[in-house]
Specification:
By secondary structure, the chain is mainly β. The protein folds into three domains: about 50 residues; about 220 residues, Sandwich (Jelly Rolls), CATH 2.60.120; about 375 residues, Methylamine Dehydrogenase, Chain H. Helix content is about 10%, strand content about 45%. It has seven helices and 41 strands. The strands form nine sheets. Strands 1, 3, 4, 6, 9 and 11 form a six-stranded antiparallel beta sheet that branches. The protein has a five-stranded antiparallel beta sheet with strand order 2-5-10-7-8. It is globular.
Length: about 675
């Protein structure tokens, strides 16, 4: 074999190897590939003796001799906290509200404790030092005798409490359990109380912290309530004799976070821009407009003076605020819930407006120009309370709003009915349609097809209306149990995301409602979520022209006040490409469970923009957060591999050409 043929053969082998194996596996460099990432969460249960297998420290507060305790090591171990009251024996009730909001109404009470160390520090990444989520699980029962057993109101007169006490001596009440609660109780700890309990142990950049030690104490106690001193001009303490016993057999503190993780698998925002006007500001909707503009809508309110105004902001791609406007008048309050922008730059906002001094409210529609000037405002009311939740503008200039009306049935029960309203370009109502008959349904999604068909979702149904208001599609069989959003793909395919009892679902439908594709992702995402009582709830669905699907979900305790968010990416075959945790810290996607909205857009620059509310300060703030997930949003992993292989192939061809030329010149 000639030298020339040897070179060609060797080059061919190298090319085949490159085609068959990734470059990174050959040790020739690395290619960044996007893989399915887990959240990086770690579940901890820090209490040293949750089963109460040994007698805990028991402390009596105050001077009363009515409190005692006993410990039983059989049957796995349990502790009894006992209050024995004799009629006419005075107790030390506070004259006013407690200095510490978590303390009982009475200075006389009994409790037991367990202490635990907390070795995790925040340093460069503060949220690593404290839990993101936490819950208390307690197995207990109440045992009563005497008047406490026979009096039908006795459950008013005592409570079981659970506190977390930091090393500075601050008591944070995380559970207050009346006697009628179940034997096994699980209670989530709010993010506010997590911060109060743990934040004092996080060292700053100088290595100092607020609390004197990295120790927390969990306490369980029993105490009389203020009603025992006096209720409806009756003084139970003077007339009742008997005992109340809280028997605790198990208590578990479960915490979930990024503890001791060197590189948490989450995405930090590239930029956070904050807006407030001196009042509490709430974020509700987001939309992209012409000229690389981003619009956010929400409300600004003050309980002290009764002020409530709709607020609207315009931002550029760098999250710089261009202008902000608010709208209300002396006779009306208002709040904005959703926003859409037409091709000519006109801004349409829907929400709710109400007359001061009246309990009636109306669905609101407003039109603004691109400079933030109000062109007109309209309301829709059918003699019921109403609000607009979603707005969409069609190509012919008509506007559609999907909202809800609130009404009362013959038994005075509150009912909710989604209502779709069509408006012309000047704000006149053309028609309205009820989208449900159950009376317990909510609006959740709205989109318009290229042929003018209007598709919407309620929790119970997927509906399609012609421009004249005729129903062409009414699906209920895919809901398990609730549809949470709808969007059309580049070819008018219908994409819907739903929330089920155990799974969330993504599915694609044809325009006539036939199922094309479906995939599920757990509502709890991880076993730990179910253990700690967390929910994974869809918020936003977006579909790109290349078929990539993005679903933004919030993580929370069922209250809608989510403190973390997960972004899923699926390819056009409904295969999960990756899921990433977005670090939102103190930002919430939703400020109210009554509002279903989209919190995220994907800008023309490929960046993700999320609107949220910061509820951690004295004055709540509206924010715009941007996340840069890189070019992987538009280029799949296989395309990256092909690109690298192609580059390598070109290089080999160049090498071969050089060798050939040298061979011929010899």
């Amino acid at each position: 074999m000639s030298r020339f043929h040897q070179v060609i053969t060797t080059s061919t082998i190298i090319l085949l190897v490159l085609l068959l194996f990734p470059i990174s596996s050959l040790g020739l460099g690395s290619v960044e590939t996007v893989t399915h990432q887990t959240s990086g969460y770690v579940m901890l249960q820090p209490l040293p003796d949750p089963e109460i297998s040994s007698e805990p420290d028991i402390i009596t507060n105050g001077t009363s001799i009515e409190f005692s305790s006993s410990y039983n090591s059989t049957d796995g171990g349990y502790v009894d906290l006992i209050w024995t009251h004799s009629a006419g024996t005075a107790l030390d009730f506070k004259e006013s509200l407690p200095d510490h909001e978590g303390m009982p109404d009475c200075n006389d009470f009994i409790y037991f404790t367990q202490s635990f160390n907390w070795p995790y520090e925040g340093y460069e990444f503060p949220i690593m030092g404290r839990p993101r989520f936490a819950s208390i699980s307690i197995d207990s029962k109440m045992i009563t005798t005497g008047d406490f057993s026979s009096n039908e109101y006795s459950w008013f007169f005592y409570n079981t409490y659970v506190w977390i006490i930091d090393s500075s001596g601050e008591w944070i009440r995380v559970l207050e359990k009346p006697s009628y609660w179940e034997v096994h109780t699980v209670n989530g700890i709010s993010s506010y109380n997590i911060a109060r309990a743990w934040a004092g142990m996080i060292e700053n950049e100088n290595g100092t912290q607020i609390d004197p030690s990295d120790t927390l104490t969990l306490a369980v106690g029993i105490s009389p309530t203020r009603q025992f001193e006096e209720i409806s001009s009756w003084n139970p303490w003077q007339n009742m004799t008997g005992t109340v016993t809280t028997r605790v057999s198990k208590i578990t503190l479960s915490v979930l976070g990024y503890f001791d993780v060197e590189t948490p698998e989450l995405i930090e925002p590239e930029k956070v821009s904050v807006y407030n006007d001196g009042f509490d500001c709430y974020s509700e909707g987001i939309c992209e407009g012409p000229g690389n503009a981003i619009y956010t809508v929400g409300s600004s309110s003050s309980y002290e003076d009764g002020r409530s105004a709709l607020i609207l902001q315009k931002w550029d791609y760098d999250c710089n605020l261009i202008w902000s406007r608010d709208w209300n008048d002396t006779s009306r309050g208002a709040a904005g819930y959703d926003i859409d922008v037409s091709a000519d730059g006109s801004i349409f906002v829907t929400g709710v407006a109400w007359q001061h001094g009246s309990d009636l409210n109306s669905q609101l529609l407003m039109k603004w120009n691109s400079n933030g000037e109000v062109l007109w405002n309209r309301t829709y009311n059918d003699e019921h309370r109403g609000k607009g939740k979603i707005v969409a503008v069609s190509s012919d200039g008509n506007i559609y709003t999907l909202g809800e009306r609130t009404w009362f049935d013959v038994k005075d029960n509150v009912r909710y009915t989604p209502v779709l309203v069509k408006w012309d370009s000047t704000g006149n109502v053309l028609w309205s349609k009820n989208c449900s008959s159950s009376g317990y349904d909510y609006a959740s999604g709205l989109t318009i097809a290229s042929d003018g068909t209007i598709y919407c979702t309620t929790w119970e149904a997927i509906l399609g209306f012609s421009p004249s208001g005729n129903v062409g599609l009414n699906l209920t069989e895919y809901a398990d149990p609730e549809y949470f959003g709808i969007i059309l793909g580049p070819n008018d395919e219908i994409y819907v995301v739903s929330r089920g009892f155990y799974n969330n679902s993504l599915f694609q439908l044809s325009l006539n409602g036939e199922m094309i594709k479906e995939t599920n992702f757990s509502r709890y995402r991880y076993e730990e979520f179910q253990t700690i009582g967390l929910d994974l709830e869809p918020d936003t669905i977006r579909v790109l022209d290349n078929g990539s699907i993005y679903i933004l979900c919030g993580i929370g305790e069922g209250s809608g006040h989510w403190t973390d968010s997960i972004l899923y990416k699926y390819n056009s075959d409904f295969e999960l490409v990756w899921s990433r945790l977005l670090s939102m810290t103190s930002w919430r996607l939703r400020s109210s469970t009554s509002v279903t909205k989209d919190s995220m857009i994907i800008g023309g620059n490929g960046k993700f923009y999320v609107t949220a509310t910061n509820a951690s300060n004295d004055i709540w703030e509206l924010g715009l957060l941007t996340f840069n997930l890189g070019s992987s949003n538009y280029v799949s992993d296989s395309m990256i591999t092909i690109l690298v292989i192609g580059t390598g192939s070109v290089a080999l061809v160049v090498i071969i050409s050089i060798v050939v030329r040298k061979r011929r010149s010899q």
